Amino acid sequence: MDLFDIANQKNNTNLKPLAERVRPETLEEYIGQQHLLAKDKMLYRAIVTDNISSAIFYGPPGVGKTTLARIIASQTKANFIELSAVTAGTSDIKKIVQEAETNLKLYSRKTILFLDEVHRFSKAQQDSLLPSVEKGVIILIGATTENPYFEVNNALLSRSMIFELKALTDSDVIKALKNAIKNPKGFGNLSIDIEEEVFNYFAVHSNGDIRKALNALDMAVKTSKKINNKIIITVEDAKECIQRKMSLYDKNGDNHYDTISAFIKSMRGSDPDAAVFYLAKMLDAGEDPVFIARRIVIFASEDIGNADPMALVVATSAMTACHMIGMPECRINLSQAAIYAACAPKSNASYNAIDSALEEVRKHRDSGIPPHLMDAHYKGASSLGHGTGYLYPHAFGGFIEQQYLPDSHKNNIYYKPTQNGMEARIKDRLNKLWKDKQR
After folding, report:
1. Hey, is 39 helix, strand or coil?
2. What pTM does this model have?
3. Contacts of 211 (CB under 8 A, 6+ apart)
4. Which of these, 364, 414, 370, 415, lies nearest to 391 by C-alpha position?
5. Which of 5, 67, 311, 353 would be a feasible disulfide site paired with 1, CB 3.0-4.6 Å?
6. Which residues contact 252 (CB under 8 A, 6 or more apart)?
7. Which residues of the chain have pLDDT under 70?
């Protein structure tokens, strides 16, 4: 290596992003994920004893999936290959498999394949890995930001352990930032005066993504003013370097479903504060307001029903408003509808009624519509007995007891009103009208 090589190596190191320069190289340096990497945990023991098996690391961006894989690479005696599913193809996999088979046969050396963004591989590409993983030729470590149960083939999943890495805490992010300030590979050779609140600001606004926080710190160090060769970083500088809080919400990803699930469950649990919080999270991430409105309309019948029939009116009106006026104004309509739904009395009796009736219809043959309910508005209907004996309720003050269900189902009860809200009155009225069918 000559002087030019040394200079180039130094320049290339300096050109690397801060997050790459200060990336932890050992488990002792690794920050967070103690639910997986505390010394008494199985994953920790598997790494330090070099007994890692095929695994999927699943979690949001910037929580240390790739870093953990590289630490495994430094710990293992196996041949370690790193590949990105974004750029790799089936031909790359075949070549790696062939080399792995050779290493195993000739040198009894295993091969660990780290496949970043494994969810980007098609089903066919994932299938091409299966035989070698199954035979133990390759130990696969996949990393993904998407729920592997949705995005990874079941056959691969069944042969892999799933480890969920979670967004880091603010204190974890602050620790990483302070380490970067002291680390010689980071800014340890610079004189930096940084307000404590800057660390807190970066941590809060990165939402547990260390890479995002380090990138913001990198920008702050490079652009903040110098006084007497000392870099001064204030909260105002920090705000310019990380202008908008990152939202852990992907309209096409796993968190999309988790957030809408939390939104619905908050309304079901009668917590308007939580409901409006998840509503705000979705809107801030750019979710389609009509999609949210549709969910509230469904909820109004599925979880409120006749306990408060106005809920469906409010929900459908909010959906109409979303179509008519759009964002940002329709956020107010959605807020009103979500809060109304959360505060309304709850009943899933209508939901249960239709599902119960559908199950009956699909599983059991009925004895046919009672003749007195059949259409009698055509010539010859009476000769068939259609309509004969039908009692017109309005002729009896609005109600007269008679059979409506087929003989085979005449004693069945599908709608079972609750004692909540308006439904309590409905239940009381039905029990008074139908004395032999108490609900």
Report:
1. coil
2. 0.65
3. 19, 61, 62
4. 370
5. 5
6. none
7. 1-14, 243-255
